[in-house]
Structures are given as structure tokens and as C-alpha cells.
Amino acid sequence: MFLVGPMGSGKTTLGRRLASLLGMDFVDSDHEIERRTGVDIPFIFEKEGEAGFRRREHDILQELAGRDGVVVATGGGAVLDAATRARLQKAGHVIYLHASVDQQLRRTARSRHRPLLRSGDRRAILARLLAERDPLYRETAHRIVATDGRNTRALAHEIHRSLMQEKSAP
């Protein structure tokens, strides 16, 4: 299962809860990139640019898509690569966690770990990214879940129940 959506949509927090409810492993692709490289995402952006980071992200997601029993929180830009979108769709259930720009602003307000938000008007950047990526998230997703103002625990239980109902349906 793969969670896609913009930064601040709750992919990591919800992913951990959902994995626990489903009895699956959880992997955040950004954290996995940091673990394997030994450096943080801003450092990769600084040294390799966004293109270098996206190559690493593509490789990690191709690998994770081959694993069973895992909930994967993808990076916000993972859907930019057509091959990654196709692989995620084919490999498992993709859930788009939709969050408004206001929600993203609230959830990323204190973060200094997001390279794309380091320069310029954060609201304008988030609005531009959402406008560019929303169609790609929708194209990739099997299900869309609105996260604005939603409690993560309740949302995880709601998704879990829905998945179990689908599984038991004839």
C-alpha cells in the first residue's frame, strides 16, 4: 500500500498507524533515502539538486514496490515520475491523502527540513506544487481521502475498516 499526497498531508503519521492496524511494516521513502545515504534530504538537494534526489527516490520506490506487507509513505513529489506512478499503481493500493494549502501550511509551519519551502512565499509555493501535482496524485490513486481537520487515529481506523470491507466483499 502506498500513500501519496503533498507535504503536510499526514502520510508518515497516518502510514505508521495504518501499518500497525494492518499488521504490516511501515517505510517512509524519504527516511529510507536518508538512512541509506547517511545524509538528510536538504543535503542531497544541495549537492545533487532536485533531479539527483528524484533519481534516488525513483530507485527506492521501485524497490519498495516489490515488497509485500508494507505501507509506504512516499515523498510529495514521487508522482512526478511517470514510471514511478505506473509502478505504484501496479504494485499495490494507492491512497491519495488530500490536504488543502491551509492545512499544509499549518502542518509544515515549524519544519526546516523541506528544501522546496526554503525560499520564497511558503503559501505560494505550496499552492503551485498542489496545482501541479494534484492531477498526478488523482491519476495514481485508487482512493482519495481528505485529511483536513481530521484526527489521524480516527482516519486510520476509517481507512482500515473500509479496506477490510472491500476485502470481504464478494
Description:
The chain has 170 residues and is an alpha/beta fold. It has one domain: P-loop containing nucleotide triphosphate hydrolases (Rossmann fold), CATH 3.40.50.300. Helix content is 58%, strand content 12%. The chain has a 5-stranded parallel beta sheet with strand order 2-3-1-4-5, with helices on both faces.
Based on the model shown, name its key terms.
170 residues, alpha/beta, Rossmann fold, 5-stranded parallel beta sheet
Write the layout of secondary structure elements.
Blueprint: E1 2-4, H1 11-22, E2 25-28, H2 29-37, H3 41-64, E3 70-73, H4 82-91, E4 94-98, H5 101-108, H6 122-140, E5 143-146, H7 152-168
Parallel strand pairs: 1-3, 1-4, 2-3, 4-5
How would you briefly describe this protein structure?
By secondary structure, the chain is α/β, with parallel strands linked by helices. The protein has helices spanning 11-22, 29-37, 41-64, 82-91, 101-108, 122-140, 152-168, and strands at 2-4, 25-28, 70-73, 94-98, 143-146.
Unreliable spans = none
How much is the radius of gyration in Å? 15 Å
Beta-strand fraction estimate: 5-15%
Average pLDDT, rounded to a whole number, is 90
In the CATH hierarchy, the architecture is 3-Layer(aba) Sandwich
Taken in chain order, the helices and strands follow as EHEHHEHEHHEH
- Helix proportion range: 55-70%
Q: Find the CATH topology.
A: Rossmann fold
Please state the structural category.
alpha/beta
- The protein's oligomeric status is single chain
The main pleated sheet reads as: 5 strands, parallel
Arrangement of strands in the largest sheet: 2-3-1-4-5
Gap between N and C termini, in Å?
A: 21 Å
Number of helices: 7
- Total domain modules: 1
Principal-axes geometry comes out as globular
- Write the CATH homologous superfamily: P-loop containing nucleotide triphosphate hydrolases
- What's the β-strand tally? 5
